[in-house]
């Protein structure tokens, strides 16, 4: 939509870079989809053919045995399809729209899991769903984001606590990041490891419970956990749909808690992994721009400084640290930067100056969690970063 | 998980505030779910009872007419359920796992729509899905976020262009935000209106196409559009599943484009609406803290300055603007702030100083899109804002 627009609040180089990143990611995703489609088609097609053939044989056999015409059977099955859409199963499933069932349903709506084990069939239900989902999905998105915020704060707390117990290692770390811009913040790697371990443990534990309670195989239960926690929610396997369970109330609560924590964990994990994807795209973009520059030097290609890969940034940061040498040296992020390596040395000392100024003005040391503005915005991606940075709040602006 | 942890990189007041916001939102969501469950249960339960009763009658009638035992019919229907899970429909659905079908499937995986019209049935397919989905969902999340970024940049471009054509109004706006911190950025209201209008137009247009192509009623098609674009994806209605369409190739492309743009639009809309939800939660929190303060003054409640609602912030911003008066006055965001009204006047002039310093150091005017650091972090919510602000990039940190 706005793929080729320049925002105008930035140089044309930055806009080109942003557009190029967006388009490159889109192209890579298209390739990923094509590759995935080929693999799934190869894996699943034989099974589908087999299942269809088996069904045709069974249908014909049943008709022959009971002397039923194909049309009569088709009419009967059409009625069954209609009933199945309203929640009927051969082996007595629980009611869909009693209060616990409806609660499960709205939970799958606001989390966008959408199993589809129950779907509104009335006009009123469908209309209400649209309004209800709009507010509910937005609020749940906010909830997930606040969860992620709390989680990273917790991880920061733990890593600092661990660092404080090993003062030798901590001093070594301090020497590497003397300006405090990144001090006390967990790295992407640490958060990824923590989240990955938590998600894996949760999936494995939940799968064991589901396998026991639902009578699924362990692999099926694991597959259900991933599909549900990632909010894909096919609905081929849905927990809690049988008419009776041992310890029904407890199982319902456990199911709710597991789904909630699983969805929160996998949402956070996806967000952290997407940082790595972004870095990979930036790296590819830097490589492509570098190759284009070497091939098309003097032919009006994009200027090299607008497409810097992590490797080049790293050397820029090192250069800044060496040039500055004082406590003002700071880590630069690995994100794609615009003009950054040009101005790195200036900005490094500026950051120290700003810090001193801020402390002088407020009469107390500045909060460690407040990064320098350029550090923050070099990675200006993402739903909230984008909006916080680029929107004037209406509540103050009116 | 980390709900009660203080990050330690911030005062205890800020941590309390963050925890309170998270817990309040969780409580409000629980109420929202309970209310929604009650409404859906009331709306849908009669229809479910009716459908079950009708099915029981039809089942009994069919058995009587053709002299079939209930057990024989149940066995037959169990076979049909098995076949239906593999994609068989009474009225010849298209193959699920040919290449276009598999492409549609992987599209619903990475976008987390997950209709479930086709689901992997083999062990290999299920295992591959977990790895494929993990990377695919993360990349698509990044794609949505970059789309949102491009979209807001485009809207900023359009609003500035409109402002430039009406110089009188623009001068008036400038006078209201002289520091340039929010100048040229579209407000949440403008983005919400633009996105809401775009989503509505897209849903209505797409519904007209789907209603014509699939033979659904218009309301059903509209309901399908919302369920698909919001990535809920129940799977009760799925486009493109019939064996034949007029202009099949064109319809497939249109279906893909509509789903892609619809999902991007609604994801962006949810994010913008969640800003409003956050403001509402902050307002409620401020009210609650204010009431608690009045009731429990001197009983060790949380200090009032750590729980400021938008109303109070607005007056603080006005006070700062009056106290400063120069071009250094800047809008404060409507977000909940910590220590902000205490230090507002100091920070307002500090922001101007920092800007001058930055321009002096870099030899050119600072980019308008770079906000002052405290403005950025007053609204430190959200997946990416959180991570950009709180994580040290490993690529630079190693």
Automatic annotation (TrEMBL), chains A, B:
Subcellular compartments: Cell membrane
Compositional bias segments (type: Low complexity): 303-314
Catalytic activity: K(+)(in) = K(+)(out)
Matching InterPro entries: 2pore_dom_K_chnl, 2pore_dom_K_chnl_THIK, K_chnl_dom
Transmembrane segments: 22-43, 102-123, 129-148, 190-212, 218-238, 250-270
GO molecular function, one term: identical protein binding
One of the GO BP terms on file: regulation of NLRP3 inflammasome complex assembly
Entry keyword set: Cell membrane, Ion channel, Ion transport, Membrane, Metal-binding, Potassium, Potassium channel, Potassium transport, Transmembrane, Transmembrane helix, Transport, Voltage-gated channel
Pfam families xrefs: Ion_trans_2 (PF07885)
Main location: membrane
UniProt membrane topology term: Multi-pass membrane protein
Domain Potassium channel, residue spans: 94-151, 201-278
GO cellular component: monoatomic ion channel complex; plasma membrane
Stretches for region Disordered: 293-329, 356-380
Domain of life: Eukaryota
Entry's family note: Belongs to the two pore domain potassium channel (TC 1.A.1.8) family.
PANTHER family from the UniProt entry: POTASSIUM CHANNEL SUBFAMILY K MEMBER 13, POTASSIUM CHANNEL, SUBFAMILY K
Protein name: Potassium two pore domain channel subfamily K member 13
Organism, as annotated: Bos mutus grunniens (Wild yak)
Lineage: Eukaryota, Metazoa, Chordata, Craniata, Vertebrata
């Amino acid at each position: 939509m706005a793929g080729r627009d320049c925002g105008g609040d930035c140089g044309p180089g930055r806009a080109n870079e942003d557009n190029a990143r967006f388009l490159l990611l889109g192209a890579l995703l298209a390739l990923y989809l094509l590759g995935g489609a080929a693999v799934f088609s190869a894996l699943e097609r034989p099974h589908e053919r087999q299942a269809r053939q088996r069904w045709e044989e069974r249908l014909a056999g049943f008709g022959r045995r009971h002397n039923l015409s194909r049309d009569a059977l088709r009419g009967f099955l059409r009625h069954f399809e209609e009933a199945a859409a309203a929640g009927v199963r051969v082996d007595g499933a629980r009611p869909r729209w009693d209060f616990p069932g409806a609660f499960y349903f709205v939970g799958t709506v606001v989390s966008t899991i959408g199993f589809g084990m129950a779907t509104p069939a009335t006009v009123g239900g469908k209309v209400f769903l649209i309004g209800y989902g709009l507010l509910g999905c937005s609020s749940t998105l906010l909830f997930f984001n606040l969860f992620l915020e709390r989680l990273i704060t917790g991880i920061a707390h733990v890593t600092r606590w661990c660092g404080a117990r090993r003062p030798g290692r901590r001093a070594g770390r301090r020497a590497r990041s003397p300006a405090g811009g990144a001090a006390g913040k967990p790295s992407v790697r640490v958060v990824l490891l923590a989240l990955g371990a938590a998600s894996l443990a949760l999936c494995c534990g939940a799968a064991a419970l589901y396998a026991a309670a639902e009578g699924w195989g362990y692999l099926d239960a694991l597959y259900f956990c991933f599909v549900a926690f990632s909010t894909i929610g096919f609905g081929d396997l849905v927990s809690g749909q049988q008419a009776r369970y041992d310890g029904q109330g407890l199982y319902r609560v456990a199911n709710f808690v597991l789904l909630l924590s699983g969805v929160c964990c996998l949402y956070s994990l996806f967000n952290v992994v997407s940082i790595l994807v972004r870095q990979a795209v930036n790296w590819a973009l830097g490589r492509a721009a570098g190759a284009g520059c070497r091939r098309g030097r003097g032919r009006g290609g994009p200027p090299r400084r607008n497409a810097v890969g992590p490797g080049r940034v790293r050397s820029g940061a090192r250069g800044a640290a060496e040039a500055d040498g004082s406590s003002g040296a700071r880590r630069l992020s690995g994100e794609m930067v615009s003009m950054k390596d040009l101005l790195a040395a200036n900005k490094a000392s500026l950051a120290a100056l700003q810090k001193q100024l801020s402390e002088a003005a407020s009469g107390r040391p500045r909060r460690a969690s407040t990064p320098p503005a350029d550090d923050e915005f070099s990675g200006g991606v993402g739903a909230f970063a984008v909006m916080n940075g680029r929107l004037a709040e209406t509540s103050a602006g009116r």
